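Aim 2 progress. For Carboxypeptidase Q, the working sequence is reproduced below.
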Amino acid sequence: MLREWLAFFGALCAILVSINLVTADSNECELPPGLREEIAQYQPVVDSIFQHIVSGEYAGKTWQSLLEFTDRFGPRLTGSKQLEDAIDFAVQEMIAEGLDNVHTEEAIVSHWQRGREWAELVEPFQKNLPMLGLGKSVGTAPEGIRAEVIAVESFEEFENFTADQVEGKIVVFVPAWAGYGATVQYRSESASVAAKKGAAAVLIRSMAPFSIGTPHTGTLSYDPEVRRIPAAAITVEDAMLLLRKYRRGDKMVIHLKMDAMNLDPTISRNTIGELEGHTFKNTSVVVVSGHMDSWDVGTGAMDDAGGVFISWKAVTFLKAMGLRPRRTIRAIYWTAEETGLEGADEYEKQHSEDEEDEFNVFFESDSGTFKPTGLDFSGNSDAHCIFAEIAKLMSGFNDFTYTEGTVGSDIGNWERRGFPGVSLRNKNENYFWYHHSEGDTMELEDPDDLDRSTALWAATAYVIADLSIDIPKDVTDYKPK
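Predicted structure tokens for this construct:
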């Protein structure tokens, strides 16, 4: 399942960060009688939401709450006490804010620990190689691995090596950056590709287009039929250095030490708080979401505490403004996204029996909370038409797109089966400079950008939740994975 998720997520990130989707135009649509006029009547409410959050009493509060959260809990690796403490805190705070039906729902998740790790080039000269073990990688023996290096740019180039040439070597994969969707296969597959020919370990160029000597981690996927070998990411600069030297014919030796361990699965929790609808409480729910877990480097401010907090504060501020829609708006902070959507998978299974009645639309922010420019919508053509009309209410935003595919990672489970989805469009051109690295910190987050993101999230969710009709959907049945 993880291999398929990584392939999907890579393609998704390529869409969200690099590719413009089809622009929505409601003028080409035939809406149900009176719906266009009904939607237009929400303009004063939308304007009021923006005023309160962007320039009123809630201005700066999303950023301040995010700052206090990331400073208090730091990185929140799946399976860690830090993540579970952060979940406990979110529950306590949402109760204090008066949100409805605050609770958690358990999920069995992976439990990987990094441990101490280092890599060093020892021949032809000594050089420290900053590195990060890949999530779910096995460790080395206590003495580490000291081996000669093979460096290649692609899987195709590696095919030219025989097993005898590869046996016992450390293979370094240095793919040219072609966008996350096209390049992430090297993070997920390199260990098993190299192990098939007897490699002792793999190092990969970090999945980033730009670097200042910072490695980027992420999850790998082992082929169950192939011996598991240690895998780590090194910096772009060091990967390019090793590739150049190898192509010159230089003999290189690297000493790699990793104490990484895969422990028994453990229990984590998805975290839920609601603004309960005044008419429909447990049906046609509008979900707003982000993922609570992060990698164990940086503080996970961008990926994805920012997404959590615009979802959380959207609901909190709507309640404080006295705006209670027809349908419930449910904030969900997913656990274990980074290790393969484990929290969302479990939630989907737990809610599968009556899901077509329970859910209306799924929102997710997981591609940064930089300066917002609009929204990405997914769904059928009827949903597209309603989304496009709602988008007209959002003054100052003109980047609204539509797809019949997916616009989220955790919510992709539902989108692929016909539920409508929404994600935040933002100026995230540099997202992968910081992704899964020590650079993912509060220094990336801007108070004004977070205010506008929260307001856009809150206003759109409120209108969808309060409309006289549900957003149309064509849902296929849930099938256990």
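The chain is about 35% helix and 20% strand. This observation will guide construct design in the next reporting period.
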